Amino acid sequence: MRISAIALNTFREAVRDRILYSILAFALLLIGASAILASLSIGQEGRIIKDLGLASSSLFGAFIAIFLGIGLVFKEIERRTIYAIIAKPIHRFQFLLGKYIGLVLTLLVTVGMMALLVVGLAWAIDGYWTPGLLAAAALDFIALMIVTAVALLFSTFTTPTLSAIFALGVFLIGRLSGDLKIFADQFAGLGLRIIVNGIYLVLPDLSRFQIGSRVVNALPLDSADVTWTVLYGLAYILMLLFLAIGIFQRRDFK
Amino acid sequence: MEPVIEIEGLCKDFRAGFWRRRMRVLHSLDLVVHQGEIFGYLGPNGAGKTTTLKLLTGLILPTAGSAHIMGRDLTDVAAKQHIGFLPENPYFYDYLTGREFLDFCGRLFDLTASDRRDRISRLLRLTEMEEAADRQLRKYSKGMLQRLGLAQALVNDPLLVILDEPMSGLDPLGRKAMRDIILQLKAEGRTIFFSSHILPDVEVLCDRVGILVAGQLRDVGRLDQILKTETESIELTLTHVPAEVVATLQGLAQTPVLEQPDGVLIRLPDEQRLDMALRAALAAGARVISVVPQRVTLEAHFLREVQGAAR
Question: Are B220 and B237 within one domain?
């Protein structure tokens, strides 16, 4: 009840904030514009819509996750809104989980809208459904949940600017670390290989969650692989949340 | 009387500066607040008042010592079930309406929907916020936020109400309304613990006060006990005073004799000097208009405590 109250409140705050609408409007515009771009290509219209649409939805989803996530806790402390909340009979972990769930809910609605637009456009152009697109969007959504948890973790102990830099860094490296690892394993010397492998192990491997190109090219999906990826994502989120709670429990709200 | 707040040896250190040096902002505080009293927690800015209130509400964690609220240790979240807290210069979520925010607060206490509805409409009436209830909080003035802050502090029907500077930022009307509400809360049997540096309000309201200076509790007690022992001076007003007697009176007075249109005003340090002044004046044919002993005001006492600590 208490966690859901915080979550609902976070969601309500977020959906009434103009920043969300600006990002969302821009994302929907870009996805819409990909339809124009698609019309310039011959025979590849559906493919371009799907590729660009999924990429935009993923990128703007990450923007929302990072830019709302970094202020999630910091803003509450800075504006002192947290004072009246923590003075009520609520555990600090309940507060943090509520904030997280509220933002994930916000993401679900916004990314859901983007995904539906992509699926709708692809259907209009191809003339047939591609349900795999929804699976790709769903898997990418788990990656966004990781990014949100990263932003939340930084938000519990540092300023929004630093949080944004760290979270963006984790997002970019996370998207590339899989490729970097393959690259390092093949070409790099021992030292660099250890460093790259270390980074790969510590930071989340977000590239695992990108199955868009397989879906677009109608390649088969390995269901075991997808299941492992989902489990990996959930485990990573839990670990980040535990860490964030551990820091948040000990904080003084000065 | 049952103790509602029991604080024992409560200390708080903050780390500050580049080297993260420890600074003690609250020194071994011992304090008991009883059921049904209005306790005024006074001190200059930076004395540690807000720190104490934040410790009591779990916003910061103590370095040492303990505090119990109605017998429950502070670390027990259930202790907060019966506390209402109004932070200093409260600020809430911009995009919620007043009613939505109060409803949210009610949910945090696990109140049922019908309980929330009843309480919220009662509190909106009490704080005279009915008209603004459905406006978003970013459009609220400072005084309105303060009223809403009070309403959210009372949403759980608390036995203990903790108010951090409840009068700050309010106009005279708002202060009067806040005073009336605090007295009403006391009449309903609640305990009120509030910090303030607006001393006239404290004098009117409080059963007991504590004076905190530089993190140390300097004085605790009933206002009349703290102030009774100190009669600061006696003001004597006379008319028809011959000019040569004024000089004699000046010799006895604490401050220069004030010549007013309807007589002279003499401030005397004690009763002995008053006797002497009265005898001299009456012998010279002067008439007495008034003799008023000047009790030490809370403000003077407070200033003395603060200056004493600085020395």
Answer: no
